[in-house]
Amino acid sequence: MPLLGPGGRCSARAVGDLIRESFVPGAALRGKYAIVGVGETRYGKVPGVSALEHNVDAIAAAIADCGIDKAEIDGVLTKAPTSNFQMLWSATVAQAIGVVPRVTATLDQAGASNIGLIGYAIMCMELGMCSAVVISYGDNPATASRTAYARPRGEHAPYGLFGVAAAYAMIARSHMDAFGTSREQMGTVAVACRQHASMNSNAHFQQAITLDDYLNARPVAEPFHLLDCCPVSDGGAAIVVTSAERARDLARPPVYVLGLGQGSPAWDFERRTDWLTSGAAVSGAMAYRMAGLGPSEMDFAQLYDCFSIVPIITLEDYGFCAKGEGGALVASTGMQIGSKLPLNTSGGLLGETGMPGMQLVVEGVRQLRGECGERQVAGAQSGIISGQGGVMTTHATMVLGNQAS
Amino acid sequence: MTNEHGNPAPEITIVNAPYWEGLREHRIDVQQCCHCQAVSFPPVRRCAACLGTELSWLSASGSATLVSWTVIHQGYHPAFADRLPYIVAVVRLAEGANLVANVVHGPVEDLYVGMPMTPVFQDFADLGFTLLWFAPTGANS
User: Fold this and answer.
1) A25: confidence class by pLDDT, cuts 50, 70, 90
2) Where are the alpha helices (DSSP H) in A199-243?
3) Hey, which residues 3-42 in chain B have their CB within 8 Å of chain A?
């Protein structure tokens, strides 16, 4: 299985790793599996549709997208709705789509679950347990209940620490203090995501914003103001994953899973000693190594952006710049479509939908199929997707590509 | 101090009760592992560092520094509606434990990472508990 692409496309760091290690875990699976179908519902406020119904709608769209026979699907994997966690959710979703699978599982890594589930799907298929897996997420917190998003944890409630915005705000302040990261730089992330959302007719937010809009928005948990924070949105998205071999006979060009990684700082944020580096450092390195690619080969980045500071930290941890220079990086390029490394080309959590992460996977796939119209990153061949959960508690990375080898 | 919604009460358990009792007596009692000397906060049944089961209590000096903070403007809970905006911070005790607390007194503009902080034992007598807040060392109430 070749680890270097045509013309020897591989970063110097990846080559060094290969020389140092005679065995790269997971490398044998590089490109062996593909995302063959994607689907989504309307995003935003979608009244009258339950979380389960959003899952079903998204899965129906993903199945139609690739033309696979529903009877072929033998794995149903989900992340349970954030607003209303229930046991055996994948079994419930399997019933609703009329599938009796071999494998059902629900993974709780919060926003990192989607990529975690892709890894789980691949492992199950590699073990011969199933052969075609649907992975979905759907929820209706905007019209039903958003209390889960403001729930305090443990000993935090007496001190008025509710939800995650305050914790991320403290992380942002640490980053600003340590590196001089500014609100203007964080605002560049928000402006880019909203610009891309304005080019996406399905996005929760249809209006672009200016840096002035960002700076003047009302404070929420300082240094965060309203436009530093993703919305609470209804909707769902789903993908179909199968072998690259099976993918050849389906409707859409396959997008290959080239690399996967996980990294979990895990502990409550106040008990960690380093807030400035996230699980992206570990999970990104893992995914790059499996893929045999490095940051210079990434044509886009779909990075988890629950809050504006997160892509800045993630870009550093993914090796696009040195630690502490993420703010300068985003400010220097603007990160918009047409720049060297476009960020969240359908709007991300900040603009497309506050859903925890599947929208980033769907957009990554569409970009690599070349079907994004005016949002298309010209000539995209590989890209990196991040998933993050909790307060930088869990992290997963996926490298996708449209070249089989 | 509080509106009719009071203040969210701490979840007091058999394991952490000595800590909350200590606060009512204006002490910060934290656990130290008898085996590996690691300081555990919040209180635990087993030391997370070495999984040892013997933990003793020590009274912290009160010396602390500010790790980070945020100013909350959003009303997440009715009990805090009258107190907006308020400051939530992470404070590090000299003994090596980090905790979440409110910061009071002293203008927010003067706060800085690493600032020395002094405990403020905030009694909620009618509610039956005392919370651990902090103020910049030397700030006037």
Assistant:
1) confident
2) 211-216
3) 7-11, 42
Other beta carbons less than 10 A from residue A381's beta carbon: 17
Report the alpha-carbon distance of residue A378 to residue A171 in Å, rounded. 35
Pairing of strands B64-72, B55-59: unpaired
Pairing of strands A382-389, A301-302: parallel
Tell me the whole-structure pTM to 2 decimals.
0.94
The 10 Å Cβ neighbour count of residue A40 is 26
Side-chain-facing half-sphere of A147: CA atoms under 13 Å: 5
What is the Cα–Cα distance from A259 to B49, expressed in whole angstroms?
33
Q: A275–B8: do the CB atoms touch at under 8 Å?
A: no
Which of A220, A270, A271 is the mutation pick for testing B, counting most B CBs within 10 A? A270
Distance CA A98, CA A61 (A): 15
ipTM of this complex: 0.96
Inter-chain touch A158–B7, beta carbons under 8 Å: yes
A116 vs B73: CA distance, rounded Å: 35
Max distance between CA atoms of chain A, in angstroms, equals: 60
**Which pLDDT score is estimated for A1?**
41
> Dihedral through CA A11, CA A15, CA A17, CA A23, nearest 10?
120
